[in-house]
Design a protein that fits this description.
Layout: E1 2-3, E2 10-11, H1 16-36, H2 64-76, H3 80-93, H4 97-105, H5 109-117, H6 122-136, H7 141-146, H8 148-156, H9 163-179, H10 181-190, H11 192-199, H12 205-219, H13 224-228, H14 243-250, H15 259-275, H16 279-284, H17 287-304, H18 310-324, H19 329-332, H20 335-338, H21 341-358, H22 363-375, H23 378-386, H24 390-394, H25 401-415, H26 419-425, H27 430-437, H28 443-459, H29 462-469, H30 472-477, H31 486-498
Helix pairs in contact: 2-3, 2-5, 3-6, 5-6, 6-9, 8-10, 9-10, 9-12, 12-15, 14-15, 15-18, 17-18, 17-21, 18-22, 21-22, 21-23, 22-25, 25-28, 26-28, 28-31
Length: 499
């Protein structure tokens, strides 16, 4: 907003539009950073029988001879119990990275394991799949790529009848997907997207959670925005499948909503939205209204329970809403109307209070949504004022510098709507709060405070006198030598003295 000229420092003319542009640039940078903060991880299913998991039962590292022996017994043993026991011993050994490396170095080891996976004996199939699952949990991409011969069979078994086996295959595929692009290159033409889309019809909660996990791993791939998400071809595209509609159904509030399943699919939806491939399509499918209703449901839930697990769902829901509201398509399809103003703002503040008490690290997520709601919507700003939420908002200022900047940005959104809004903001509790933030050492907090003051002086001239009476000039003087702030400080000083 301010430019440096030779000699004296003088304010440039533009004011509100320049303030808005600068905030949008910062918000764009923050959105990009949040899109890149992904949750790549691996999951391990271990369901050892009590006698296997008893105290003192520690899996040993296996050498080549032992691995070969167990594979031979599993393949050629005379009794099924002996063969199954050999695979159990191998599986335990594969919990160690050293054994995993030994296994993939042995010629024919994977071929033997795949042969057992495709045998007609269910118990041997299950134990072979568990061995693959242990391998999939390795942090070495070479181990994941050694499992490539098994991926087509794992996909085939997703259409089987055993929910436990399907769950195991899904988690194994999810672990392999995230580790190696080579695995993903093989899985896409093999039909992983339609296979996953078929699983979403499962009545089993455990299968749906595992499906959400595998799908989220696929959506986090670096090449996902170009090769996996876009509706380029029906065989390999997420958006060309029925998955997005089914995801939204899984997020519908009501008695059928399962929190664990909802968390998985909310993150999936978040990754699709962050790809920015076809967000208008999601908005057209009713994503805003579904997520808005879920937000209301979450706010109701936190009032009834102190279950700390609710934030696991709240975080991706807030991110999805925040990012969708930045789309131009929101206006064209009446997106703002899909979010009923006062109910959404009230629900969001219930969640903010919950985060403040239980999970302060999530406050920026809620404030980011509030920022995007109020940025271009006078009605949401009106709701903020009519529900008397300015003071609760100001109470969040001491939490952290990041939270302070976001609170001040929301207040700037309200102030820039004009004189009527500034009149309701000032003075009240805002003046002492601003005098307090001007004493901060953080440049960004002080800079945002100065922008808010500029808007108040512009639209509410009497604010200048009140500011002066409360030692406002002295508060400004603390920052007049700071290079990043001195232009704005000087301009405000001049405005105050002229007022």
């Amino acid at each position: 907003m301010w430019s440096r000229r030779q000699g004296r420092l003088r304010p440039t003319v533009c004011g509100v539009e320049e303030l808005r542009r600068r905030r949008r640039e910062r918000e764009a940078a923050l959105r990009k950073a949040r899109r890149e903060q992904q949750l790549v991880s691996k999951r391990l299913l271990r369901d050892d029988a009590p006698e296997e998991a008893g105290e003192g039962c520690v899996a040993a590292i296996l050498g080549e001879t032992e691995v070969q022996q167990f594979l031979r017994q599993a393949q050629r043993g005379t009794e099924e119990k002996e063969r199954e026991g050999a695979l159990v011993s191998l599986r335990r050994g594969l919990q160690h990275p050293e054994t995993q490396q030994t296994f993939i170095r042995l010629e024919g080891s994977m071929r033997t394991l795949v042969g057992l996976l495709t045998s007609n004996q269910a118990l041997l199939q299950l134990e072979a799949a568990r061995c693959l699952h242990e391998l999939s949990h390795s942090e070495q991409s070479t181990v994941a790529e050694a499992c490539l011969p098994a991926t087509s069979y794992l996909l085939t078994y997703l259409s089987g009848h055993s929910s436990d086996f399907i769950e195991l295959c899904l988690y194994t595929l999810g672990n392999l997907i995230v580790e190696s692009e080579a695995v993903r290159r093989q899985l896409l033409p093999q039909g992983i997207v339609p296979a996953l889309a078929a699983c979403i019809q499962s009545p089993h909660v455990a299968v749906l959670e595992a499906l959400g996990y595998a799908l989220s791993q696929l959506l986090q791939a670096e090449e996902a925005p170009e090769k996996i998400i876009p509706p380029a071809s029906a065989s390999s595209s997420i958006l060309a499948s029925t998955l997005p509609q089914h995801m939204l159904q899984m997020l519908q509030p009501g008695p059928k909503l399962n929190p664990g399943v909802a968390v998985e699919f909310a993150w999936c939806l978040h990754y699709i939205i962050c790809s920015q491939v076809s967000n208008p399509l999601l908005i057209g499918h009713g994503a805003l209204s579904t997520l808005g209703l879920l937000l209301l449901d979450l706010a109701g839930a936190v009032q009834k329970t102190e279950d700390a697990g609710l934030e696991l769902l709240a975080c991706p829901v807030l991110r999805c809403l925040s990012n969708l509201l930045t789309e131009a398509a929101v206006e064209t399809v009446g997106g703002q109307m899909q979010l009923r103003d006062e109910r959404v703002v009230a629900a969001l503040f219930i969640l903010l209070q919950f985060f403040f008490q239980k999970q302060p690290s999530l406050l920026p997520e809620g404030l980011w949504l509030l920022n995007n709601l109020t940025a271009n919507s006078p009605s949401f700003c009106t709701s903020l004022l009519s529900l008397d939420l300015i003071e609760p908002l100001l109470q969040l200022l001491p939490v952290s510098n990041v939270v302070s900047v976001m609170v001040l940005t929301v207040l700037c959104n309200v102030a820039e709507k004009g004189p009527a809004y500034c009149q309701r903001l000032w003075p009240g509790p805002l003046l002492p709060a601003l005098l307090h933030t001007l004493a901060f050492s953080d440049t960004e907090v002080v800079g945002q405070s100065l922008e808010l003051l500029h808007l108040l002086f512009l639209y509410q001239p009497e604010a200048v006198q009140v500011f002066l009476q409360q030692s406002g000039l002295q508060a400004l003087e603390r920052h007049q030598e700071e290079a990043q702030l001195q232009d704005r400080v000087y301009a405000l000083q001049q405005t105050a003295l002229q007022g």
